[in-house]
Amino acid sequence: MSDEVLECHLRDYIASVTADEVVFTWQGGEPTLRGLGFFHKAVALQRKYAKPGQRIDNDLQTNGVLLDDAWVAFLKAHRFLVGLSIDGPQDVHDAMRLAKGGTPTFDTTTAIELPRTPIANAESMQASPRIDAAASSTDLRLPTGPVPLED
After folding, report:
1. Residue of 11, 47, 81, 111 with fewest CB within 10 Å of its CB?
2. pTM
3. Between 121 and 23, whose confidence is greater?
């Protein structure tokens, strides 16, 4: 997506929303592959086009593999609600989500480490900050719904 298309989409979407809150959900095809620079541009454009008194919220659904300290700081600073895609216990997850070379991804995902980072304790986030773990329907042993961020 070019910068021009991004700007046009964000501008037009924000203009079309009549509510006080505009929500952008970034998901599909692993959105973090766009890079942190893309999201910096998106947030800057959202601020540019937000109407007075309008709140902009962002949700990010990710496998967590690319989330490093820079990503966590950005997500915290911009109050993103983060959903981590986890397909169940390690055996189920690794059967469903393989890396490009065919290797399992459970151990490399930051899904387990992320709750210990500052984003999990961010006072500036929602009243009950959480990571939503998207459980696969192939594993009925997992609860569905929000997973609280508590040590």
Report:
1. 47
2. 0.68
3. 23
DSSP characters over 47-113: HHHPPTT-EEEEEEEE-STT--HHHHHHHHHTT-EEEEE--SSHHHHHHH-B-TTS-B-TTTSTTTT
Element containing residue 41 per DSSP (H, E):
helix 36-49
Q: Which residues pair with 85 in a beta bridge?
A: 134
Pairwise pLDDT comparison (1 vs 80), residue with the higher score = 80
CA distance linking residue 87 with residue 93, whole number of Å: 4
- Give tens-digit pLDDT for 24-45: 999 988 899 999 999 999 999 9
Cα separation, 136 vs 96, in Å, equals 9
Cβ neighbour number for residue 30 with a 10 Å cutoff: 14
Please count the other Cβ atoms lying within 10 Å of the Cβ belonging to residue 31: 17
Spatial distance between the Cα atoms of 89 and 139, rounded to a whole number of angstroms: 8
Please state which architecture CATH assigns to domain 3-148. Alpha-Beta Barrel (3.20)
Burial label for 128, CB within 10 Å (0-12, 13-18, 19+), is: exposed
